[in-house]
Automatic annotation (TrEMBL):
Domain of life: Bacteria
Ranges in a coiled coil: none
InterPro entries registered for this protein in UniProt: NAD(P)-bd_dom_sf, Sc_DH/Rdtase_CS, SDR, SDR_fam
Keyword field: Oxidoreductase
Record EC number: 1.1.1.100
Name listed for the protein in its UniProt record: 3-oxoacyl-ACP reductase FabG
Organism: Paenibacillus baimaensis
Gene Ontology MF terms in the entry: 3-oxoacyl-[acyl-carrier-protein] reductase (NADPH) activity
The family this protein is said to belong to: Belongs to the short-chain dehydrogenases/reductases (SDR) family.
């Protein structure tokens, strides 16, 4: 077992897409124990600041930072900013992503590339850049936010399902690569969560989905955040390469 180089509540977590929804809940969960929290966002400046203010109420050190995760150059600038503020991450949560609903026959090549770059390439670039100090210190956590559709696939969500399936394979392979360095890599693959990503569904469609879920309801973002937090703990160091799906019994 590789021990952390500093107490858990003195570590730094980087949450990509941390301005709202699951990402904001994750940032707030880590902030609740006084950790250093970096809230990444792409365009949602005000939402990121609102999340940061909630996190700072706990006494946590909080930094907001914008970057287009499709760009290696912008990720390098993000790293420079974090280094300047002495907030190099011990924990990475690759949460940033976009959804897409529609028939595959209607997906353009440009849309395919864009969703792939945000959901999959972004996680690759962030992990590649920020795992380097983790390897040097022989300790770290990478937690990827995937989806139930990355496990089972979903009709009319072929593009989104493909990106999340890629995240799952990325997680399993990188876990094997980094295990000798004391760095764990896991994925959390939620079922239906009560966030803005469900805005594409009307009330009848949402009710129909809830009826399919044995638990009879959508997950709340804080429930997903609790699992992410658990996987980041020092005592979770023997859990790696796992795709864990909190889905209310929807997929077993």
């Amino acid at each position: 077992m590789n021990d952390p180089i500093r107490p858990f509540n003195e570590q730094t977590v980087l949450v990509t897409g941390g301005s709202r929804g699951i990402g904001a809940a994750i940032a707030e969960r880590f902030a609740s124990v006084g950790m250093n929290v970096v809230i990444h966002y792409m365009q949602s400046h005000e939402a990121a600041n609102d999340t940061a203010r909630r996190c700072m109420k706990t006494g946590a050190k909080v930094l907001t930072a914008t970057a287009d995760l499709r760009s290696k150059e912008q990720i390098l600038r993000l790293q420079e900013k974090l280094d300047h503020h002495e907030m190099t991450p011990d924990i990475i949560v690759n949460n940033a992503g976009v959804s897409h609903y529609g028939m595959l026959s209607d997906v353009s090549e440009e849309l395919w590339d864009d969703v792939m770059n945000i959901n999959l390439k972004g996680s690759f670039l962030i992990s590649q850049q920020f795992m380097k100090p983790m390897i040097r210190q022989k300790y770290g956590r990478i937690i990827n936010v995937s989806s139930i559709w990355g496990i089972s696939g979903s009709s009319c969500e072929v593009l989104y399902s493909t990106t999340k399936g890629g995240i799952n394979a990325f997680t399993k392979a990188l876990a094997k690569e980094l295990a000798p360095s004391g760095v764990t890599v896991n994925a959390v693959a939620p079922g239906a969560v009560d966030t803005l990503m469900m805005a594409n569904f009307d009330s009848q469609e949402k009710a129909a989905i809830e009826n399919e879920i044995p638990a009879g309801r959508f997950a709340q973002p804080n429930e997903i955040a609790s699992l992410v937090y658990f996987l980041a703990l020092p005592e979770s160091g023997y859990i790696t390469g796992q795709i864990i799906s909190p889905n209310g019994g929807w997929l077993t």
